[in-house]
Design goal:
The protein is α+β, with helices and mostly antiparallel strands. 19% of the residues lie in helices and 27% in strands. The protein has helices at residues 2-8, 49-59, 93-97, 146-152, 161-170, and strands at 63-67, 71-75, 81-86, 118-125, 131-139, 174-181, 187-194, 199-206. The longest helix is centred in the N-terminal third of the chain and has 11 residues, at 49-59.
């Protein structure tokens, strides 16, 4: 979703997603928390990674400074930066040779051959010694991912309220906050390493002096 959005964002005024919830395509035999529905939100109101991707894109500021292969950098009038980084990995040939009804959720990783991480370095220039707060919101196989949480409980179909509560908790992005300063030359360097199919939203906000 992020990859496709980035490719059209300078050509359209807005973007919408067709289905908000999997309830749209749920049937009597759809007992699993994930059943192939195209919604942003799964059964029980649990957000999917795609929900966070759409939400992160909505966080971007109006002024886009950079839109490259794996990153989008935006800025507002108050010198706050909103950044999206991603390491999109396309499916391998196996994905296109089997039917949707033949794909088991436990076999998803077999559909991706490339397991390379991506290192991204961003260098900003400010006045020397300026203080900033950096927040990052990370979604990958470990964080913000309902699939990994569902795996933890054995891909069960009948879920208790405690099971749903657990899935809700593990489906939240990992958040980190740190304070940094530009160096004596005014440079602030941001280094990020993204695992396959990870995406991250980062804010850089100046702190009051």
């Amino acid at each position: 979703l992020i990859k496709n959005f980035a490719s059209i964002m300078d050509k359209v005024d807005g973007i919408a997603y067709w289905v908000g919830s999997d309830l749209f395509s749920e049937f009597i035999d759809s007992r699993d928390v994930l059943h192939g529905g195209a919604g942003l939100i799964a059964k029980g109101g649990i957000p999917k990674p795609v929900f966070h991707a759409f939400r992160f894109m909505n966080f971007l500021n109006d002024h886009i400074l950079l839109n490259e292969k794996c990153l989008i950098v935006s800025k507002d009038e108050d010198e706050r930066y909103g950044i999206i980084l991603h390491n999109y990995i396309s499916p391998n040939i196996k994905y296109f040779l089997i039917g949707e009804d033949e794909i088991e959720i436990s076999d998803l990783n077999k559909l991706f051959s490339n397991d390379k991480s991506r290192n991204i370095e961003l260098i900003f220039y400010f006045k020397p010694g300026k203080n900033f707060e950096i927040k990052s919101f990370k979604v990958n196989q470990e964080y913000g991912n309902i699939i990994s949480g569902w795996k933890d409980i054995g891909y069960r179909s009948s879920l208790s309220s405690k099971d749903l509560e657990y899935l809700m908790m593990v489906s939240v992005p990992k958040i980190t906050i740190k304070q940094v300063s530009s160096d004596l030359n005014g440079y602030l360097v941001l280094n990020e390493c993204l695992v396959p199919n990870e995406f991250t939203y980062i804010t850089i906000s100046p702190m009051e002096e």
